[in-house]
């Protein structure tokens, strides 16, 4: 095992050898909640390289990772061994106990975010964490292949019709985020769905993480007909947050063209996955939505939620 140490602050002089999660970073937590933060970083002291991180929000003796976000938990370098992951987990537990923490609630990122999530899961169980829930996400792997090669034939036809109709995908400047948010909220409300965030929350999140929230649209001429907010949820993954389209365009399904644009953006930025999120409605899988994401090339990945009493 390398010469490892768990520290509570990451020095600017240290290199970062892992992909950071947006939802556990200090700036994000400032906008997310007003609770005290606790951070732990795994450091290779010989090479002066950070190999992992976990950020918590503390409330009444319980630490949450995340407190109010899709997921959090451990962010780990790909080359960490089982022994090194175990060391990190137990050092975090020891330090939390010293700080008087009573319990831990944690939801890991889907396993497309890190290559060693299954190994982490095994080590958390070994450390006494209780696995409470697993949720299925879908994500598209970003490769050198054209987007349409991953599509079901039905979606290929829809994509072709959108292009024949002259619809165009584009990334909008940051100051247009409010316009896209309003469009998405309106279209989803008309279909009976609510957004998980209100505009004041989104505005604050963008303020403290200005590069992480990106508005994307599909237009018919000058009219927005489909839109989404792309969230850089990690250094390697773009999260497709609440895409929506105008009901008038249902037969053409402009969300397919929207997804192609996101895929091409990810490829240009060197990202590994386009996260399509979950497909649950009232705790059950929405089969129609799951099938649509599958037709777009979405593969299934799991996210695990854990709880542990700190004694």
Automatic annotation (TrEMBL):
Residues 157-279 form the BioF2-like acetyltransferase domain. InterPro entries: Acyl_CoA_acyltransferase, BioF2-like_GNAT_dom. It holds the Pfam family Acetyltransf_6. Transmembrane segments: none annotated. This is BioF2-like acetyltransferase domain-containing protein. It comes from Roseivirga echinicomitans.
């Amino acid at each position: 095992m390398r010469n490892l140490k768990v520290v509570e602050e990451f020095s600017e002089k240290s290199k970062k050898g892992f992909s950071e999660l947006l939802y556990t970073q200090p700036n994000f937590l400032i906008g997310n909640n007003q609770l005290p933060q606790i951070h732990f970083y795994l450091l290779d002291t010989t090479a002066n390289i950070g190999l992992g991180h976990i950020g918590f929000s503390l409330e009444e003796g319980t630490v949450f990772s995340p407190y109010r976000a899709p997921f959090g938990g451990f962010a780990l370098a790909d080359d960490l061994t089982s022994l090194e992951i175990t060391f990190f987990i137990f050092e975090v537990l020891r330090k939390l106990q010293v700080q008087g923490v009573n319990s831990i609630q944690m939801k890991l990122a889907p396993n497309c975010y890190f290559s060693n999530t299954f190994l982490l899961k095994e080590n958390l169980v070994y450390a006494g964490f209780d696995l409470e829930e697993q949720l299925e996400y879908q994500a598209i792997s970003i490769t050198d292949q054209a987007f349409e090669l991953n599509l079901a034939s039905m979606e290929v036809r829809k994509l072709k019709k959108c292009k024949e109709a002259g619809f165009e995908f584009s990334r909008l400047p940051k100051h247009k985020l409010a316009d896209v948010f309003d469009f998405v909220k309106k279209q989803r409300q008309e279909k009976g769905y609510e957004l998980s965030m209100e505009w004041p929350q989104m505005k604050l999140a963008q303020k403290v993480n200005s590069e992480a929230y990106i508005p994307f649209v599909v237009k018919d001429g000058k009219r927005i007909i489909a839109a989404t907010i792309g969230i850089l949820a990690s250094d390697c993954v773009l999260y497709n947050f609440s895409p929506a389209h105008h009901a008038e365009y249902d037969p053409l399904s402009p969300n397919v063209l929207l997804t192609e644009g996101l895929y091409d953006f990810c490829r240009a930025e060197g990202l590994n996955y386009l996260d399509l999120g979950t497909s649950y409605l009232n705790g059950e899988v929405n089969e129609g939505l799951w099938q649509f994401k599958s037709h777009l090339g979405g593969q299934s990945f799991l996210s695990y939620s854990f709880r542990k009493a700190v004694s």
